[in-house]
Amino acid sequence: MAEKDSKYDPLVIEKVFPAPAALLVDKQPAVNVMAKECLFVLDANTLLAPFLIGKESLKDVKKVFASLVSQDRLFLPAQAVREYAKHRASKIADIYTHIQQKLSSLPSNPQPLAIPMFEDVPAYTAVGEGADKVRSAVKEYKSKLQELLSQVRNWHGDDPVSTLYASIFLESHVIEHGKSLEDLSADLERRTIHGIPPGFKDKAKPDGGIGDVAIWHTILKLGSDRKRDVIFVSNDAKPDWMVRGGDEGLFPKFELIAEFHRTTGHRFWILPFDRFLELLGAAPGTVVEVASTTDVPSTSFATKIASDFLAAIANVETLDLDAVFHRLHGSIMAFLGPDESDEDAEYEYIHDQRFSALVKRFGELLSVYLTQNDLKFGQPKTLKRVLALLIRMDELNREIAYHAARMKRSTTEQQRELRELAEEFIELHMKITTGLHF
């Protein structure tokens, strides 16, 4: 028998669950009840997740974090901060590499079509004009890519996410575990031999899983010192932390809950980042966007950031008010039309991924338009109603899409309201485009 096997304790379960009678009557409080007073601890993957979200969602995340910090309820394990710092650089490098690849893969400018015999043909003239527009668009596209590369290149700890953290967290929010390397190593060995979470499934990691054990002891220390319940915010649903059902982490391993209660006298839970934000009152759109970042591979990380940015430049940012208005009309008609409607579908919403960007662009352009004297496009009252409709539709659409992805709950009322607002938008669009907007 190997030396490691000789250390196996056949009665280890008695040490993991030393008070079996309590297991029969002990009740874990509801998470929404815990969340009102507990301390929150952020994992490294949670700290990295905001690199994948947009400006407005990042503001929302900052609002949630700042509120908890002001209440002295948000903390970071030192090990999680170190892991975040290690992986942050590689994530930014991935983004930079992807943008470079996008720039190098752009096609050459179209060459002029030189066929003199067609000079009097309108279509030939139109082809030439179209080629000029393509050349101009490609030039602008490359320019924006270069600007973005320059911006990423000049990030030295002052990227938007790092700046956010620097403005919120102090040294006092970073918690050390207080254990020696020898103590952590011995505990990791014990957990690995006996299959006790966490860390026992991380033998293949360079650190052998000691990082997870360090974070766990930090959580135990925080709960003991502060005498409070703790919720660990992590997108890591590995089986040495979570009980899994299918592809999802359902709830923390009971061994963790029991050890935390035995050590601190208080309660422990684990939440993914999106659920944490939802409980703390973040906007539905933020919750949806954060949910889409869960378990994103590093190769997709750069693709999502750069592609979303570039799509905005190419498809939305360069559009004028009339073009945005008509693209919104097309997206909403697709939602109302038979091609996208499914009588058997539980969740119906606008599937155009540009919809939120189009709504935002419409609002920006409208604010400029309303300062002009020559209001040919439409009257202020009508256009302001259109904007109000679009903003509410975007909120509803994000909420429905979120619950459609996670199958969280019924959104029948939200879908009904979205459809009613969509129909009103179509009516107003017709009045504006036909001049009946007074």
UniProtKB/TrEMBL annotation:
- Give all residue intervals belonging to the PIN like domain: 39-256
Which InterPro entries does the UniProt record give? PIN_8
- Record protein name field: DUF4935 domain-containing protein
What organism is listed for this UniProt entry?
Answer: Corallococcus exiguus
